[in-house]
Amino acid sequence: MPWTPAFEDLLALVEDRSAALLDCVARSPDLDIRVPSCPDWSLRDLVEHLTEVQRFWAAAVVAGPSEKPPAPAPLDDTLPTDLLERSVAATRELVAALRAAGPGTGCWAWWGGSDVPMTSGAVARHQVQEAAVHAFDAQLATGTPQPVPGVVALDGIAEFIGISHGTVGPWPHEPARIGLHAAEGESWVLDLTASGSRVLDGRPETTTGLHGPASDLLLTLHGRLSADSLRIQGDRAVLENFRAGPTWADLPPVRDGASCRSRRSKEARGGRLPPPPRA
Q1: I need a surface site. Which of 17, 124, 126, 256 has the fewest CB within 10 A?
Q2: What angle do CA 120, 124, 129 make, to 5 degrees?
Q3: pLDDT of 122-159, one tens digit each?
């Protein structure tokens, strides 16, 4: 299985991917252009969303173990008024909170039904993916899409499986196995049954296999690329059920568009659902 970066490396990756998003936005002459993968949002909305999300998780980490998410952060007159500076401040706040807590400190998280721990370390890992996928959104909007860095993509696939499939519930179709095979040499096989989803060890036979670079696999799982960007082997009907199932239910054929709303809805399970950001 892929190696998850060390905690300090995760913090550096949160900073790196957040900076990649802001660098892309800063180069755009128009912050109101639409984001194809989040069609209800502009670039401005995307930055405001990441700012909101990072401040939320900073508050969750600072609050420590809890059965409830943190209350919405009050308006702070000390925050920068400039859009990009405010986002930089939010990233700094998140990383500082994570570093102060260390990787093993418990905190609220929406993935309590999975095997992924509810800790600051898991939050750091998740926030790498938050920033990385939204950086791709910004690049897509400005016509400069870049692959997600390999170390981020490989760990992101495992993280996606652990959290999204760890909370998805029973598979409502005939039992199936889907293999995700990264060109970098890593593979995952998901066993989908009425008992839920689990990752199998080794190389068992699969009903459907998806093959491609780790970045393409990750972006397909998050709906930024069509599954047709991958090489598909086996029963495509299983893939369609997989896409139409609970993990993908909120998402159109290219898994975002609605996945921006989908991500917020997961956080809303704890009662905190801010309205879509608007300019």
Answers
A1: 126
A2: 145
A3: 999 999 999 999 999 999 999 999 999 999 999 999 99
